[in-house]
Every structure is written in C-alpha cells, then in structure tokens.
C-alpha cells in the first residue's frame, strides 16, 4: 500500500483540510512567537487560542478545542495591559504631570504609542507594537475623493472623524514640543499628523473598556481605555455574546463564552449591537448578515418629499432641529426607527395640528 493511502492517511488529510477551511494557523510566525514569549514573561499562559488567518475575517484567534458556554476564553493579567498608568510610569510621566492644561487620557495613550514605536528595538513594548496594524481603514483615514463617494450621513460622520483627529493634532503640538528633551530628533518629525492618526485609530479600534480612577494630571474626559495585547486579535461577530470584565480578584481581564465554539473555529467576541455604519466608522469594517443593519435617511432625503408649499415647513424644521431629530433617522430590519417615525409624523402635521388653537 502506498504511503497515506490507508485509513490513517485519509484521517490526516481530512484534518489538514479542515484546518485550512476554518483558518490557517499562524502561531509559527516569528512575530507571534515573540509576542507569546513577551506575554509569558508577564504572567500570561494560554493553550486555548492560537493566531490564524481566516478567509472572511482575516487575522483572528482559533480555538484549539471545543469551547462550551461558561468556559473561560482568555484571562490577561493586568501587567499585560497598556493603560494611562503605564504611560505615567514611563519617561513621559513627569512631562504629562507638569503640563497645563492637562492632556486627555486618550492623548496620553496616543503619545505613548508614537514614542514607543519611534523607540524601535529599545521599546519594551516592541513585540506588541510589531503585531499592530500598520494602517487602518476607518473612513477618517480615507482620501478625500473616496469620502465624497459615501452616502451623505456616513460622509458627514467621516468628515467629523477626520476633523476630530486634525483638531487633536493641532491642539497637541505645543505638548509634543515640550517632550524634546526626551528625543535626539526634532519632535516635529516624530509626532506627525500621520503618526497621531495611526495612534488614534489604534486606541479607537483596539481598546477594551476599563474604567480607571480620575487622576489630577489628566483632563476630565473619561479614562476608560486599555490596550490588551493578544486579546485584541479577537474579531467581532454580531451573533455572539460573551461576558467580559476586569476581575479584581485575579487582577486579570477575562472573557467568558456564552455560546459554543467548535474546535479549530474562529473565536469571536461582540463589540456591541452596532449597525454597519457604526462598525465602519469606529472599527473600519462591516459585518455580513448583521442583524443590527440599518439604512440612514439623510435630512436632505427627508425634506425632498416635504411639500414645498407647506407654510409650516420652517417651523417644523426648527422643532426637529431643536430636539435633534434631523440625524440618526434609520430603517432597520423591523422597519423605520422610532426617531424616523416621529420626524415623519411631525412633518405630515397640518397647521391646525401643529399649532392647535
């Protein structure tokens, strides 16, 4: 009998094919080997998950065994998390504490990421930085010509996102300059707009929610960010629910399964009940068969069907604007949203109904 022609050979081929159908194991790649060693040195051990490339979602984490509801998926020690506490303990800490007006927690984290990325081999966070995306696909990062092709509601949000990043960059230039003693190169060549855009997207797309106590050295904006190496390789599915929180007893961030995941399947978490516009804006992707999908109706579309001779047109628009009912008007799987129905109802009122005597 020729090699691999028997029952054992068939089983081996089926198993090999099964692995490739679900995802291709990437744990042998150098960047993941270094990342796992770096995490192990900080107290993280894992035998349940492995990095893999999946056909539909790209990079993610594969289960090495069948997971049942109630199983612990991952427990990442506090030492592995990158928070504002990490930043304050770094060489940036003194500069942040002395800067007035105080920087925001978000700005502190962005500054740290840029500085550590610039440090290269000298950065203790290099194994993590090496597996972060080099670029992001949030609409705020797109070229202007591409953004103009988006539907009006999404185009407006994308422009607002770009403006947010741009204003943050302009308002932080003086703070960046104050860090000059830490660098041999001009800080203007390190803390560039593109560097801040990358750092902002890293924080916006990859952090977990973790509330921290208010510190006097930061602005009053909520300090709720934590970057979670390896854990942040878990992709989103709108059809999955998990339990996720920081465990005060174990001092670890834990994720527990609420449903089954088959062996060699991709392990998902849920970022929230977001429609595809929100997913694209916040994370740079859309979900297939999203039960939260909705179509946004722009105010221009709404007004197109309002009778032009309606004498109460101006008053109706004023009411809608004052009560913030000209945005976030949607159609979902269940039909028009309550906000859209309310706006349509008001627009259809006659003069005697709008202003009853």
TrEMBL record:
PROSITE patterns: SET. Gene3D superfamilies: set domain protein methyltransferase, domain 1. The gene is SETD4. Residues 50-272 form the SET domain. It comes from Pipra filicauda. This is SET domain-containing protein 4 isoform X3. CDD domains: SET_SETD4 (cd19177). GO terms for molecular function: protein-lysine N-methyltransferase activity.
């Amino acid at each position: 009998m020729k090699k691999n022609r028997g029952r054992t050979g068939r089983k081996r081929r089926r198993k090999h094919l099964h692995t490739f159908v679900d995802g291709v194991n990437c744990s042998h790649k150098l960047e993941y080997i270094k990342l796992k060693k770096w995490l192990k040195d900080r107290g993280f051990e894992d035998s349940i998950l492995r990095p893999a490339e999946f056909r539909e979602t790209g990079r993610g984490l594969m289960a090495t065994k069948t997971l049942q509801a109630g199983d612990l998926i991952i427990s990442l020690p506090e030492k592995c998390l990158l928070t504002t506490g990490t930043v304050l303990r770094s060489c940036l800490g003194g500069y942040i504490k002395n800067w007035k007006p105080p920087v925001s927690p978000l700005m502190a984290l962005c500054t740290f990421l840029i500085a550590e990325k610039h440090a290269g081999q000298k950065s203790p966070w290099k194994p993590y930085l090496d597996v972060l995306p080099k670029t992001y696909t949030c609409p705020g990062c797109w070229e202007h010509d591409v953004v103009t092709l988006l539907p009006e509601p999404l185009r407006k949000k994308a422009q607002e996102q770009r403006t947010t990043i741009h204003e943050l960059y302009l308002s932080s230039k003086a703070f960046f300059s104050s860090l000059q003693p830490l660098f041999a190169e001009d800080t203007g060549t390190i803390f560039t707009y593109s560097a801040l855009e990358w750092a902002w997207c890293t924080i916006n797309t990859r952090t977990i929610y973790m509330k921290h106590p208010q510190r006097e050295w930061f602005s009053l904006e909520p300090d709720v960010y934590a970057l979670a190496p390896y854990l942040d390789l878990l992709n989103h599915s709108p059809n999955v629910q998990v339990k996720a929180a920081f465990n005060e007893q174990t001092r670890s961030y834990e994720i527990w399964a609420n449903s089954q995941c088959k062996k060699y399947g991709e392990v998902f978490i849920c970022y929230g009940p977001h429609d595809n516009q929100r997913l694209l804006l916040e994370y740079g992707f859309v979900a297939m068969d999203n039960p939260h999908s909705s179509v946004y109706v722009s105010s221009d579309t709404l007004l197109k069907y309002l009778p032009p001779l309606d004498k109460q047109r101006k008053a109706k628009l004023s009411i809608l604007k004052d009560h913030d009912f000209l945005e976030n008007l949607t159609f979902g799987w269940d039909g028009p949203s309550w906000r859209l129905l309310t706006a349509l109802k008001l627009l259809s009122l006659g003069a005697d109904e709008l202003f009853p005597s």
